[in-house]
Amino acid sequence: MSDRRLGLGWIALFTIALVAGGRVSAGATALRVRITPQEPNPGDVVLVHLTGARAGIRAEWNGRPLRLFPVHDGLAAVVGIDLDAPAGPIAWRVAPEPPASGPRAAGTVIVRAKVFPVQRLTLPPNQVDLDPPTLARAEAEHRELEAVLADSAAERLWHGTFRVPVEGGRPTGGFGLRRILNGQPRSPHAGFDWAAPEGTPVLAANAGRVVLVAEHFFAGRSVIVDHGLGLFTLYFHLSAVSVSVGEAVDAGHVLGAVGATGRVTGPHLHLGVILGGARVDPESLLALAPPADLAP
After folding, report:
1. How far apart are CA 261 and CA 240, in angstroms?
2. How far apart, in whole angstroms, are the C-alpha atoms of residue 230 and residue 213?
3. Buried/exposed 78-103: b ≥16 CB within 10 Å, e otherwise
């Protein structure tokens, strides 16, 4: 990961009264909203920091409530911009919960257009089209994943920065890659890959709780960790798993080992990140550097 990638777009502190397109109610100058990055790409993780806000504040993003957590000088939230999010404005607003009165603020962020790479492949039909029993299995496993990802802890379990899950692995990326197989568009690649020798330890990116251990047709041996408030990390294609469902883990906890299980061509770790239902770029989560005042 380059220094440019780590630093780009993550410093956007502003006072609402000074933001073009935003508005602030009278007497609300003590409320400051910091959104980083202010112009996110599809796949980005966005940090929302409400300085001076306390319990009783409601924040909305694109008309949906944000899952806020307390910090020493106010409240904060993290928001995912899905890899298929269209370019354009997203409205946000902050207001007291009725019937309370207090500071109010509103504004927009602009999602930038992003073109992901396309890979066109021609393969034997039996490598592309699933037979009915395998298709039924894959659909059932997809429903299982959806159910797990719909039920997150009500409190924040993570803290500090997120870590790379494979030490010494070679990042091969691929987030957002569009594959067209035999002329048929397939789902975009919603994770980031690290190539590493089979058996290399796979580490939890941050603290959380294991909510799925499974072996699926596409993903192979898999572990999903819930970090709370709608944030999950997904670890696919493992050769072995060393945790169980319900187990609490810290950052760096060994979850399993790199493998080549599932539908893959060689050993690697696929790391996926789901935030509030959005498929986001793991590199963006790894680049998230909350200031010290966001630590528990």
Report:
1. 9
2. 18
3. bbbbbbebeeeebebbbbeeeeeebb
- CA dihedral angle for residue 235, residue 238, residue 242, residue 243, rounded to 10 degrees: 30
Q: What is the pTM of this model?
A: 0.87
Q: How far apart are CA 35 and CA 189, in angstroms?
A: 27
Nearest to 159 by CA among 251, 249, 226, 81: 251
The total number of residues shown for the chain amounts to 296
Please check whether the domain covering 3-115 is classified as CATH 3.40.30.10. no
Task: Please list the rounded mean pLDDT of every run of 10 residues in the chain (296 residues).
Answer: 34 30 44 92 95 85 93 90 97 86 87 93 76 94 97 94 93 91 87 96 98 96 98 98 98 97 92 97 90 59
Bridge partners for 213 per DSSP: 223
From 168, 241, 163, 175, select the one nearest 204 (Cα to Cα).
Answer: 163
Please name the amino acid found at residue 101.
Answer: S
Which CATH code for domain 118-287?
A: 2.70.70.10
DSSP 142: H
